[in-house]
Amino acid sequence: MNRTTQRVAPLECLLAGTLYYGTLMASVVVCVGLGLAMIDSRSGAPRLAISRDMRIATIGIALFILLPVARVIVMLVAYIRQRDYRLSAIALLVLTVILLGFAVGLAGRRGKTHAPSMQVRGESVPPHEVHAISRMQDSLPVATVCTCTPSLFQTTIRVEENRR
Amino acid sequence: MDSGFAIWLFAVSLGASALGGMLGMAGGIFIVPMLAIFGHVDIHVAIGASIVSVIACSCGGAASFLRGGLTNIRLAITLETATTLGALSGVFLFGIIPTSYLFFLFAAILLLSAQQMMARRGEPLDSPSVVKSERWTTALRLDSSYPERALGRDIAYRVQRLPMGMTLMFGAGLISALLGIGSGVLKIPAMDTALRLPIKVSSATSNFMIGVTAAASAGAYFMRGDIVTSVAAPVALGSVVGAIVGARTLMRASNSSIRLLFVVVLVLLAAQMLLQAFGIHFLRGPL
């Protein structure tokens, strides 16, 4: 047993540490954000999504998504140091594809005329919540108008815009 | 979306992830249908939340496999070129494919999983020593060995038919991005049939790869704004806790009874997803 533990290469141990502590950190951030948001919603703010603490949870989610990217970077650096150029090239390719994914998403957001569907639990999300979400995600709420009461929705958004 | 709904999301993901963890699979395949059917969450939002939880489960579970020397990281990074490219293609398809098709596809994958769950996996048949090394696997030094506790020694294995494995992995990445699941259901045949890896190695390596595959699509969805924090945060947290709980109960519960429970749940969810697909189809037809 002890022999096998010693046999495991240092890169594997490094990756195990990165992933373990990364998951722990991201979970704690999400937990804190969500916890604060729920406490907030008890003491006034009627909807969870409006809470500013939700931004902390969003950062936690971003950490989760960045964790595998960090893992590929660790592998890339390790293979370059080992002068294993074939695997370095492969790691670089994987990293490029992932970053391309980020770029595609960013381009999709810029080009998109409408925000994602906010229809949750079969009901359209109330305007103030859409406003909060869109402010958080920096996109226009126009087409978040879901299945029901589009006219009511549009009016509210117009009011919001006027206020600005 | 009140605190109560957040707690419901947390509980559902915890249950789904624990259930999945008992048989060593990610809970995404349960989370998406549960959110879509019982939570009435838009399926795109459910998929966005699930893909984050898939990353969380993969990264959280990878450490113990790595320390145990079971993960073949050289093979993993090589296959990840195929899975991430597949995921990127899935991202392009995600916005185009009609919602009812997503439900259909999901039902098909659920049934495929049920079928795989019925047929028990056996070790690949041919003994490793007979097989000669292939050009690609030699060039990249993918052949390796793993410690087998039962025998108290290391067992060497060879990686075979890499191109076929890569092709299947591309499909696995595509499905993973489209449906927000780890798509172990496609990775397992790729690992068993094409690459002929020992089961322990393939489970560990597949788990290791899932995180990177999901990151390619999750990154795109996150940047595009498809991931709704108020849904994704409780789901991710519940999955992490559920994965820990599931791994603990794995030792206690009997394997065949969980298997049967799994098949029943999978078939029920598949039936419901099919109904949902038709329902949406009919609703949208006349309009």
The major β-sheet of chain B equals: 2 strands, antiparallel
What integer is the average pLDDT of chain B?
80
Structural class based on helices, strands and sheet pairing of chain B: mainly alpha
Count of spatially separate domains of chain A? 2
Overall mean confidence score, pLDDT of chain A:
70
Oligomer: heterodimer
Strand order of the largest sheet of chain B: 1-2
Specify Rg of chain B, calculated over alpha carbons: 19 Å
Identify low-pLDDT runs of chain B.
281-287
Quick overview:
The complex is a heterodimer of chains A (164) and B (287). With 164 residues, chain A is mostly helical.
Commentary on this structure:
The complex is a heterodimer of chains A (164) and B (287). By secondary structure, chain A is mainly alpha-helical. The model of chain A is unreliable at 1-6 and 113-164 (pLDDT under 50). In chain A, 73% of the residues lie in helices and 0% in strands. Chain B has one domain (3-284). Chain B contains eleven helices and two strands; from the N terminus they run ααααααββααααα. In chain B, strands 1-2 form a two-stranded antiparallel sheet. The longest helix of chain B has 30 residues, at 255-284. The chains are: A mainly alpha (164), B mainly alpha (287). At the A-B interface, helix 1, helix 2, helix 3, helix 4 and helix 5 of A face helix 1, helix 3, helix 4, helix 9 and helix 10 of B.
Record keyword descriptors for this entry.
heterodimer; A: 164 residues; mainly alpha; 2 domains; 0% strand; flat; disordered C terminus; B: 287 residues; two-stranded antiparallel sheet
Blueprint (SSEs and pairs):
The complex is a heterodimer of chains A (164) and B (287).
Chain A: H1 2-7, H2 10-42, H3 54-81, H4 85-111, H5 127-137, H6 150-163
Chain B: H1 3-22, H2 28-37, H3 43-67, H4 73-96, H5 99-118, H6 135-139, E1 144-148, E2 153-157, H7 162-179, H8 184-195, H9 199-224, H10 229-249, H11 255-284
Antiparallel strand pairs in B: 1-2
